[in-house]
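Page 47, continued from p. 46.
Same chain as before, 335 aa.
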Amino acid sequence: MRNEEKNNLLTINNLKVQFHTLEGILHAVEDVSLTMKPGRTMGLVGESGCGKSVTASSILRLLPPKTCRIAGGEILFRRRDSDEVVDLAKVDPQGELIRSIRGREIAMIFQEPMTSLSPVFTVGNQIIEAIMLHRQVKPEEAREHAVEMLKAVALRENIIDEYPYRLSGGQRQRVMTAMALSCNPSLLIADEPTTALDVTIQAQIIELLKSLQQQLNMAILMITHDLGVIAEIADEIGIMYLGRIVESGSVEQVFENPLHPYTIGLLKSIPKMGGQTKKRLAPIPGSVPDPLAVVQGCAFHLRCPVYKQNGCNGKDLPSVVEPEAGHFVRCLLYE
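Result:
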């Protein structure tokens, strides 16, 4: 292992994920690479269907085995106790190894807490079960820890005996956060944790994650389409389009000096507050191609506003280049 990789908690190299459907093979993730270090937050941003959640689910091997497979690449995870590096792309999705990692070393906050929490068990039952499974403690100790975690996410102690349907959306999201953090994971995957929440609760969830991250020194992989959330919480950012990361770097680099036309389009489409003059939003033209369609070369060239400029023909597959240190882009304009 190279010296710069020794401190990486997670390293994904050239990940490819395919779904086998009746209409053909859907290439959900193509050649995705990223690295994460303890105590840092990586934001994965893109439109719906670009492969963000599939990438996250691949890490925990939660994809349906009958219709989906990891077709290539590595998912290297450094374990907490032994410092052993495991390639999660090659482990048995139902095996003991991944089951010992899920929830304990890698936890996930799912996009819709109402469908992720069982309606027939109390909040306490569900958190206590996770704690007893991974921490091997008595039920009384598990309940005490569950209460502590609920308090950590600013929920009252009596919530532990409530059923999920009796809670608000913000409360359910906090319960999911408490459950995910109950075993002090090294990596937290947060899939759209603030979707459908009002801005006040959204801000509270973000502040909560930042506070708990500092306490636990955990890495966070934030999956979202909200660039405002990323600007608030992330250290690094990856912009995904049709299964590929087209630009990545620090939040400052990508926001202050966006390189890929898709990134530029996303930033231009954000409403600006406090300006003296009102300007129309600049939407990205066209729509995302059918995932089953095979697009030759650059997948964005069909919507690209600078297509055919500076010698770009769109038909070649762009490689990843590094115009400035730590700032990567996959675009023919920079080759």
